[in-house]
Amino acid sequence: MSDETKQPRDDGASWAKPVDHLQVSGVPAGGINLNVQGKQLTGLLKGFGQMWQKTYRVALTGQEVEPTRLISEWKANF
Prior knowledge:
The chain is low in regular secondary structure. The chain has one domain. Helices cover 14% and strands 0% of the residues. It contains one helix and no strands. The protein has one helix at 67-77. It starts with 66 loop residues before the first helix and ends with a helix.
């Protein structure tokens, strides 16, 4: 382990501020914002459901590949 002290993250200004309802600005002439203006925000479980909790299994019978290498390839190419 290192003797360095971990500095607290200072990225708070980069995150969106909390809001109750969405507001649209800068809509071009003729643009329609029916799907966003005034809509209430929803969390993961009420919005997309449990999409983020999916588990995938792949059989790599007879293959000699490190799991980290495989995931790196998938992230880079899919």
